[in-house]
Amino acid sequence: MTKALISVTGLDSTGIIARVATRLAELNINILDITQTILGGYFTMMMVVDLDGAQMDFDAINQALQPVRDELRMAIHMQRMDIFDAMHRI
Amino acid sequence: MIETGEILQTMRMIQEENFDIRTITLGINLLDCSDPVPSRCAERVYDKICRVARDLVATGEHIETEFGIPIVNKRISVTPVSLICQGDPIPIARALDRAARETGVNFLGGYTALAQKGLTLADERLIASIPEVMAETELLCASVNVASTRAGINMNAVREMGEIILETARRTADRDGLGCAKLVVFANAVEDNPFMAGAFCGVGEPECAINVGVSGPGVVKVALEQVRGEPFDIVAETIKRTAFKITRVGQLVAREASQRLGIPFGIVDLSLAPTPARGDSVAHILTEMGLEMAGAPGTTAALALLNDAVKKGGVMASNHVGGLSGAFIPVSEDIGMIEAAAKGALTLEKLEAMTCVCSVGLDMIAIPGDTPAAAISGIIADEAAIGMVNQKTTAVRVIPAPGKKAGDRVEFGGLLGFAPVMPVNPYGNDAFIARGGRIPAPLHSLRN
């Protein structure tokens, strides 16, 4: 399983989770875990997703999230989970 | 599952504390490119490097994007050129520089001679060509090993390197002697070092190998901010834990690069390499330990602790550790060192003492342009003696900045930074350096 972390940060508004989750569903990317909070007025969400269902490579998936970034005006970063596992798990 | 706090910690290290992978360096064996005709040798060298390293930069960039960790440099190290060069080395130097540009790497190292015991004809030709090559090429780095614990110090090579460094500075006078920033003189040079300017691919290395250098002095500094006033046991433990985390990411990147390129993984180099950026300084780790400036009494002890703890933490995190592993103390590439040198807190003599307990040596130090060649040779001999006797790598990368005197400032730009010109002890050593010959290898019993 190729797991990635998607972090979404920016000004809070209605429908952020719905919009991001819908796009991921369209790309056939399964959400494994979500944490979300408001930090100092800023919406902060972290999603752990499984990229294996998507029929495209990492760069293409990243590109496919661009319309959501533009529409929501949120910072959306995606990175492989391996870096967190490497650093924090033996 | 990884906890949110852990994810945030990793992100903070990268975004706020300047944690990065300093380099992926691809070592390439060029022994099979040797040819009696220099132009043919140059052609083979160019072709082989371009073929083997074709995907290096793109692969590095993909890993950066996917894992969200900056990989600052992609580099190549090659077999010491004096070993493959049977005639004029300059065509090969040009081919190496062209290959570096073609593959898109930041630097290519290996314009190297291994001269710890004596000079071959090829070594002599290569060393003599260094000033011209450093002036003419852009991305090529040169190194000369003049001493080792087993062979002693080749004082003929030491004498010559004093002249060569001065001449290299003269030839690049329009750039503050920048050529010297790409030239390092070693004792006990290592074969798998991924860091420039001293990287080369030693003869004991495989056909090619991926060597990765990590960085992250800012991360260590921030970790130590949490244990202010605590005893050194806690300081050492905190550094070890941090070095472990940093190195695990280095290991991950090395493994990924190795798999994607189909090239064996060599080593992870655990060095804490600073940059001139604020928050990316080894000197500021020392000040965080309680010193007012780097160079204050206690600096050598602080550095010894840091260097050892980095290794202890890092060695558990990677299955192969090598290179220069430790803490680097370049002056022009570290804002804390620059400030300390500018204020006079840090002197050449204190830096020399510091090199006894850390990797690597007197690094990126600007000295007055009128420093005599014999004085530079003397500095090299002193460093080589420290390396030889203590069975460690030491090096000298000094820049006699043309037309500059002590207190002036030189600018190299980018990662090479800027530096105050530091004074050199004015007393003469001509008769000492004129002797030449070899300083015998030291005895390794009766250690005192």
Describe this structure in words.
The complex is a heterodimer of chains A (90) and B (448). Chain A has 90 residues and is an alpha+beta fold. Chain A has 4 helices and 4 strands. Chain A has a single domain, classed as Alpha-Beta Plaits (2-Layer Sandwich), CATH 3.30.70. In chain B, the strands form 2 sheets. In chain B, strands 1, 2, 3, 4, 5, 6, 7, 8, 9, 10, 11 and 14 form a 12-stranded mixed sheet that branches. A two-stranded antiparallel sheet of chain B has the order 12-13. Chain B is globular, with a radius of gyration of 21 Å. Chain B is of the alpha/beta class and 448 residues long. Chain B has 2 domains: 162 residues, Anaerobic Ribonucleotide-triphosphate Reductase Large Chain (Alpha-Beta Barrel); 217 residues, Alpha-Beta Barrel (Anaerobic Ribonucleotide-triphosphate Reductase Large Chain), CATH 3.20.70. The longest helix of chain B is centred in the middle third of the chain and has 30 residues. Chain B is built from 14 helices and 14 strands.
User: What is the CA–CA distance across the termini of chain B?
Assistant: 53 Å
Shape of chain A: globular
Sheet with the most strands, sense and barrel status of chain B: 12 strands, mixed
Label the structural class of chain B.
Answer: alpha/beta
- The number of distinct helices of chain A, counting runs of at least 4 residues, comes to 4
**Largest interface by residue count?**
A-B, 21 and 19 residues
Q: At the first level of CATH, what is the class of chain A?
A: Alpha Beta
Q: What's the count of strands of chain A?
A: 4
Rg estimate of chain A, integer Å: 13 Å
What would the CATH topology of the largest domain in chain B be? Anaerobic Ribonucleotide-triphosphate Reductase Large Chain
Secondary structural class of chain A = alpha+beta
Oligomer: heterodimer
Low-confidence runs of at least 5 consecutive residues of chain A: none
Strand order of the largest sheet of chain A: 2-3-1-4
Q: Any idea how many domains of chain B?
A: 2
Summarize the helix and strand pattern of chain A as letters. EHEEHHEH
The number of domains of chain A is: 1
> Describe the biggest sheet of chain A?
4 strands, antiparallel
